[in-house]
Amino acid sequence: MIARRPLALTMGEPAGISGELTLKAWLDRADLPSFVAIDDPAHLAALAAALDLPIPIRIVENLDEAAAIFDQALPVLPCPLTSAVTPGKPSGANAPAVIASIERAVALTQSGEAAGVVTNPIAKSVLQAVGFPHPGHTEFLGALAGGAKPVMMLASPLLRVVPVTIHVALRAVPDLLTTDLILETARIIAADFKRHFGLSNVRIAVAGLNPHAGEDGRMGREDIEVVAPAVTQLQAEGIAAFGPLSADTLFHAEARKRYDVALCMYHDQALIPLKTLDFAGGVNVTLGLPFVRTSPDHGTAFDIAGKGIADPASLIAAIRLAGEMTSPS
Questions:
Q1: What is the pLDDT of residue 329?
Q2: DSSP readout, 256-302?
Q3: Which of 4, 8, 162, 234 is most buried when burial is the number of CB atoms within 10 A of its CB?
Q4: Common-topology check for domains 1-150+289-329 and 158-280
Q5: Beta carbons of 79 and 120 less than 8 angstroms apart
Q6: DSSP for 86-97?
Q7: Mean pLDDT for each consecutive 10-residue tract of the chain (329 residues)?
């Protein structure tokens, strides 16, 4: 189903492929919910011309106007850049506009004017160099939502995964991983799968931290002392969780039939199988927020920026999924 209000699509890193993805997504608009780009209209128009993409750019003042003209032109709420854009060479001078685009998308969604937020890829290091205090999009969105606990889920038609710990060094994971953190993450999964996907008893496969889920403590005690107690408590609460399971046998086709989402202990344990199975179609979904947020499951791709070869499949999938999550039931 199509969302009745437009989605708010952020600028992303202007020196990367975000603008090209936005333009190409609009070309595929017949099968998508409407969206408004919060971006620099001059930059998008120049990029469309450079890439020979026949896309009319229309500046709008509000989202009602955006919805009305979406079929005829790409609606843009202006978010001006302050520095010229060179593909592949990001400039910290444009970081404030990138951040402002995200903030406005969230504000429009929280006010009810936009149906949800779809974010283009950002260059975290560029933002952090000018004082951005957050590890990434997910944490920033949690702060904008008043300190909500954000949970990152990567989703595709083949697999859905959630990492318990996210943007931290691997050596820090065992110290950060707690039974309470696993419980908190799984409870958010259960609540949001019911709210957004209509699954009242989502099946959660819980991966072990160590190889072979620790082999009864022979390869670490974390799976016995941290992970297993969380699974037991979730089951006592009526949540269909099971594990801890050996991660090396969790993601083949037969195994995936047994669960709706895999709860993994760290970033790469979750993202490597998802990106291997469906790199182009993967979508980043932030659970635990009071609004819907999706994003492509890839980065800024500076190496191909401005060349016209960026694949918009993941952004298109993110827009489509956000529309499904925000459609009236």
A1: 47
A2: HTT-SEEEESSHHHHHHHHHHHHTTT-EEEEESSSS-EEEESS---G
A3: 8
A4: yes
A5: no
A6: BTTB--GGGHHH
A7: 77 96 96 96 97 96 94 97 94 95 96 96 91 87 90 95 94 97 98 92 97 91 96 98 97 97 97 92 93 92 94 95 80
Please give the backbone phi and psi of residue 308, each rounded to the nearest 5 degrees, phi first: 80, 15
Render 139-196 in DSSP notation, one character per residue.
Answer: HHHHHHTTS---EEEEE-SS-EEEESS-SS-GGGHHHH--HHHHHHHHHHHHHHHHHH
* The predicted structure's pLDDT at residue 279: 85
The class level of CATH for 1-150+289-329 reads alpha beta
Q: How far is 318 from 7, CA to CA, in rounded Å? A: 11
| Sequence ranges of the domains in the chain | 1-150+289-329, 158-280
- Decide the pairing of beta strands 151-155 and 160-163: antiparallel
pTM of structure: 0.90
| Positions of E strands within 4-73 | 7-9, 35-39, 57-59
Q: What fold does the segment set 158-280 form as a domain? A: Isopropylmalate Dehydrogenase (3.40.718)
